[in-house]
Amino acid sequence: MNMKVDLPYLERDCDRHGNPRCYVRRRGKRIRIRDDYGTANFALAYHDAVEKLGVSDHEKITTLRPLHPKGSLGWLGSLYFKSKNDFLKLAKDSQRARRNSLEECFREPFSDEDAEPMGNCPLKYFSAQKAKRLLEAKDSSGAATNRRKHLSAMCSWGVDNGHLASNPVRDIKAGRAVKGGGYYTWTIPDVEQFIDYHKIGSKAVLALGLLLFSGARRQDMVDLGKQHARGGWMRYVPKKTLYKRRDVSQKPLLPVLAHIIAKSPCGSLTFLETEYGKPFTPAGFGNWFRDRCDEASLPQCTAHGLKKAGATIAAENGATTRQLMAMFDWSTISQAEVYTRAADQKRLAGEAMGLITLDRSNTETPNCVDIVSGIAHSVCRTDDSGVAAPTKIAV
């Protein structure tokens, strides 16, 4: 269900690619709203922007009708999205993902015969059966598992705050998520093709190097700059777990990454900057990098897939689960075991498949190839001076 109303202080235009943009402008200042116009997310962001711009109480917009009636599932969601000790303590990217997932649930039809959105369902009638319908609406078990997790978190909050008598989602058996899916994992030829197209010294290859060799999440990588590099190490506080702890993540600045940075145009505060000389937002960077992949004829590749490639390479070269957790700022062993199990399977198969032979005299087993050297060779090519060794970063 969309909200289509005229809002004071709202301005709309298009960027150079023709994409629509919305701003709240007041008293010489403006705030951009990145959520889709007409959605519940947009309404919340609009009100937040009005608050931040200091509009007086009598000027604030109070006539917008709620998207869902009081006492409904969607109404519970609107309260949950404002909970300071629960939802708002999550990292921004986690908030966005959870909000989008729940908003999808609110838009699902009540039944096959009734197109009324599930968000209008009174809480007293929201049963395990209706929750199960929301989970079955997703095509993949992984997506259904995420939806179940988000619904359950919201309902648990509703129970704790007296809006629900019980959590109906807990009565549904969790589905079996499919492991190893998701974003496409880059291969070494993919990396080489990207570098061959964009060339060392470009912003695109700098972005690839930071994603592949720093171990940082996209939301942390866009903020990395020379101030984070000291004594051959990168130090920063991961944003995703900032609401839980402020532990500093420390990673060695690999020579191959130092070489890329030294050859690339870097900003004053962040290595990567937009064409306007400002740091990227995580979402803005993802869209920008998507275009760079398309230019290199790699439509299947994404920013997140590079991190998966790094984890795969490290695991295949012997990294343990604990090492992977430290490298990629993961808090649970299960995340790392996805890669170590796959690497162990590949290694064991590589060692054992040679045993399927009719030649009783041949007992030689092939060795695994060190694939990291392939990337380093592609990146650290001979520069104009004829020197092939990576250059140390000046910080």
Q: How would you characterize this protein structure?
A:
By secondary structure, the chain is mainly alpha-helical. The protein folds into three domains: 10-59; 73-171, DNA polymerase, domain 1; 188-362 and 371-379, Intergrase catalytic core (hpI Integrase, Chain A), CATH 1.10.443. The protein has helices at residues 40-52, 73-80, 92-107, 128-136, 141-160, 188-198, 203-213, 218-221, 255-263, 282-295, 303-316, 321-328, 333-352, 372-379; strands at residues 10-14, 20-26, 29-33, 229-230, 233-236, 249-252. The strands form two sheets. Strands 1-2-3 form a three-stranded antiparallel beta sheet, with helices on one face. A hairpin with a 5-residue loop joins β1 and β2. α12 packs across α13. The longest helix has 20 residues, at 141-160. The chain is globular.
List the helices and strands and how they pair.
Blueprint: E1 10-14, E2 20-26, E3 29-33, H1 40-52, H2 73-80, H3 92-107, H4 128-136, H5 141-160, H6 188-198, H7 203-213, H8 218-221, E4 229-230, E5 233-236, E6 249-252, H9 255-263, H10 282-295, H11 303-316, H12 321-328, H13 333-352, H14 372-379
Antiparallel strand pairs: 1-2, 2-3, 4-5, 5-6
Helix pairs in contact: 3-5, 4-5, 6-7, 6-14, 7-9, 7-11, 11-13, 12-13
